[in-house]
Amino acid sequence: SSNEHKLNFKKSKEACLSYIQDALLQKQWKRAAEFLTCYVESLEKDYSREHIGPSEMIWRIGTEILWHHSQSSMKEFNCFIEQMKTLGVKRYLKVCLEHVFHLLLNGQIDEAYQNLSLAESWRFGEQTAIQDKEMKLIQAYRGLLDYYSWSKQKNILLEHGEDGFSDLAVEQEMHGYFRKAAVNLKEIIKIPGVWDVFVKCYVDLLEFYGDHNEAHQVLNEYAYNSKFPANPNAHVYLYQFLKRQGESKKSLISALKILHDVVPSHELMIDFNTMLQKSKKRKKRRLGLEVIFTALDYAGWKENAKAWSCLARQVKQIVISEKHLDWIKQEWSSRKDWWPAFHFSRYLAKRNWQENKSLSYEKALVAGLLLGKDCKYFKYVSHQGCKAQLKRFRMLKKFVNRHNLVYLRISG
User: Which PANTHER family does the entry link to (predicted)?
Assistant: First the structure.
C-alpha cells in the first residue's frame, strides 16, 4: 500500500542517514560517499511522493566528504557545488560563500574573486531583500580580496621606490584597489558582529593613507559600542593602534584595563603589568600585582618566564622596602591552598630546572618568599643552583633566608 511504502521509505532514509553519520564520525570518507549516493538515489525515486527539502543536508554532508576524500579533486568539488547552488534559492549565497572559501584554501584567488562578483550580481525577487546580510558578507569578502591585491601592489611599490612610469601605473592600480576595498569593508563593520579580519584590513588601509582619526574612530566603535558582541580582540586592536600612534601611557593602560577585565589571561597582561609597575601611583602598582597574580592562575602561564620575572621583581621590591606586604598577603590568601601543588611541587622543580634555569630561578624566589625557606620547590632549585656553583642561586638562597620572616607575616 501507499502508506506502507512511505513508512518503509522513511525507515530506510533514516537508516541511511545513520550510516552516513557513523562513517563521518569514523572518518570513513569512501563509505560515507557510497551511502550518500544511495541516499540521493532513493530521494530521486521517491521525491514526487513525499515533499521534503534535503538539499542543505546533501550540501553539508557532500562538501565534508569531498573535502576529505582522498580521490576527490577540485574539479569534482566545483561541479558538486554548482549543482548545490541550483537546488535551493534560499541557500544560494551561503553555498557561494562556502565555494569561495574552498577556492581560497586551494590558492585559487582569481577564481574566488570571480565567484564573489557573480554572487554579488545575483537577484531573485524577494529573496534578494531577505538575504541582505549574506549579500553584505559577499561584498565584504570581495573587499577583502581587493585589500589583498592592494597589499601586493603596495609591497611592489615599496620595494622599487617611486620612480618611473611603471611605478606610477602600480600606484594608480593600488589606489583603485584601495577605493573598492574601503567601500565594502566599511559597510560590513557597521553591522553589529565579530568582524576582526575586516576591521584590521580597513584600519591598515586608513593608516597607510594617514587617516588616523577615522581609524581611531572605527576601533573605538568596534571596542565600545554596546550593540557589538563582547570581543577581546577589539580591545587588542585598539591598544596596538594607540601604541603605534605613540599615545599616552594613560590611554594604553585604560585600553588594557578593559582587556584585563574581559580576558585576564591574555598575553598582553605582561605589558599591562610592566606599565603599572612603573607608575608612581600606588593604586596602579597595586593593580599590577593583582594582574600578574591573576595571570599565573591559568595553566597556560605556568612556564611563562616573563610572567614569573614580573612577579618576582615586584614581590622582591615590596619585601626589600617592607611596604605594602598587605598587598601580597591579600593576593596570597586566596591562593595558598592550591598554588603550592599547582606551581611549586618538587616534580615541577626538577622539570623546570632541567628545561629552563631562568624560569626556575624566578619561581624559586617567589616560592621561597611566599612559602618560606622549607618550600620543596625553593629547596630543590637553590640546592641545584649552589651545587652547580651558580652565583645568582647562592645570592637567591641568602636573600630568602634573610627575609624568611616575610613568609610568616604573609601566611598570617
Answer: TATA BOX-BINDING PROTEIN ASSOCIATED FACTOR RNA POLYMERASE I SUBUNIT A, TATA BOX-BINDING PROTEIN-ASSOCIATED FACTOR RNA POLYMERASE I SUBUNIT A
Q: What pLDDT is recorded for position 376?
A: 94
Q: Look at residues 331, 339, 250 and name the one whose alpha carbon lies nearest to residue 301.
A: 339
Q: At a CB cut-off of 8 Å and minimum separation 6, what does 248 contact? A: none
| pLDDT tens-digit map of 339-378 | 999 999 999 999 999 999 999 999 999 999 999 999 999 9
68: DSSP letter: H
Total residues belonging to the chain: 412
Exposure string (b/e) for 172-193, b if CB count within 10 Å is 16 or more? ebbeebbebbbebbbebbeeee
Surface-to-core class of residue 20, CB atoms within 10 Å of its CB (0-12 exposed, 13-18 middle, 19+ buried): buried
Lowest mean pLDDT, pick from 43-57, 144-158, 214-228, 267-281: 43-57
| Residue 260: strand, helix, or coil | helix
> Contact at 8 Å (CB) between 403 and 365?
no
DSSP notation for 118-167: HHHT---TTHHHHTHHHHHHHHHHHHHHHHHHHHHHHHHHHHH-S-SHHH
Question: 52, 45, 12, 18: which is closest to 32 by C-alpha?
Answer: 18
Rounded distance, CA 62 to CA 77, Å?
9
Question: Which pLDDT score, from 0 to 100, does residue 3 have?
Answer: 67
Torsion of CA 237, 239, 244, 250, to 10 degrees: 160
Residue 247 contacts residue 219 (beta carbons within 8 Å): no
